[in-house]
Amino acid sequence: MIRAHQSLIRRVLQLLYELRYKLAHNVSQVTFSLDNYLKQLGGQQTTSFIQRAGHGIKPNVGGVIRDSFVLENPKLALWVTVSEILACLHLEHDVADSRLLALALQRLTALSVRDLEDV
Question: What is the Cα–Cα distance from 84 to 113, expressed in whole angstroms?
Fold first, then answer.
């Protein structure tokens, strides 16, 4: 599940890193707003932001096309996308735990059967 989306996840995390770096290393960014940031982006940069920040948004949200929704609600779009990524990571972790548990039980059962055969 996560492996299929690793490239996109990297791109979303890269966006967050870029925003964080911009804000953390420039004192003049105290008045930063996503709306103003988006207005300053060029065409390709805006498209990239929409693709990365809007990954977790459905193609149509209450009659509003995803691109418009992301541009009108950038903070919400980022929250939804990051929440989806975190949910997928959590699910992937749970699946891995289940597989390890199943493997451990399988080996324990095999050992128990051998012990009973020796008796």
Answer: 43
Contact yes or no for 55/12 (Cβ under 8 A): yes
Bridge partners (DSSP) of residue 65 are 60
**Burial (0-12, 13-18, 19+ Cβ within 10 Å), 84:** middle
Element (H, E) at 41: none
User: For residue range 16-66, what is the model confidence (pLDDT) as tens digits?
Assistant: 888 888 888 877 778 888 888 888 888 899 888 888 888 878 888 888 888
Nearest alpha carbon to residue 34 among 43, 22, 25: 22
Residues contacting residue 16 through CB under 8 Å, at least 6 positions apart: 78, 82
Residue 35 half-sphere exposure, CB side, CA atoms within 13 Å? 3
Domain boundaries, the chain: 3-87
Q: Are 67 and 54 in contact (CB under 8 A)?
A: yes
Please state the φ and ψ torsions of residue 94, each to the nearest 5 degrees: -65, -40
